[in-house]
Amino acid sequence: MFPKLIKIVLAIASIGYAVYQFIEGYIGNGIAMIFLAGIFVFLYYKNELILLSFLRLRKQDFEGTQRWLNRIKKPESALTQKQQGYFYFLHGVIEAQKNLTKAERHFKKAILLGLSMKHDLAMAKLSLAGIVMQKRRKREATLLLNEAKKLDKQNMLADQIKLMQQQLKKI
Length: 171
Prior knowledge:
Elements: H1 4-24, H2 27-45, H3 48-58, H4 62-70, H5 75-78, H6 81-95, H7 100-113, H8 118-134, H9 138-151, H10 158-170
């Protein structure tokens, strides 16, 4: 909703006003202003529209997710690099239901831009491997599955990786 620069300016102004409140002796107001500044800093690193999109995705509401993502007009200028990665990751998840070619393009762009958590990167590579496997590109799918397996330290995706490896052997 707010551009990155406005979020930084609001955070600095909130911290400045918090310092003023501390000097005047209003400790409670100063602490509240520091929390408010913390919210602006948090929203700088985690875009509010992407967070709302993830909430919609958790409910399997792909249309709602698409509506929230469509509110981001220029992702290159409005989002940081990692946020752009999540933007394209969410687009890839949505497009995987409709058009595999577009989904592949979005997942590749998300991997290229980077995702902040390793299990999200593993999920993106696993999804891309599934798309590539459906297009009968066995070598690329095997490479992506191995990369996803290395990134999945907590074995959250172990069952899906094993299932895809078994399906890959049938090709």
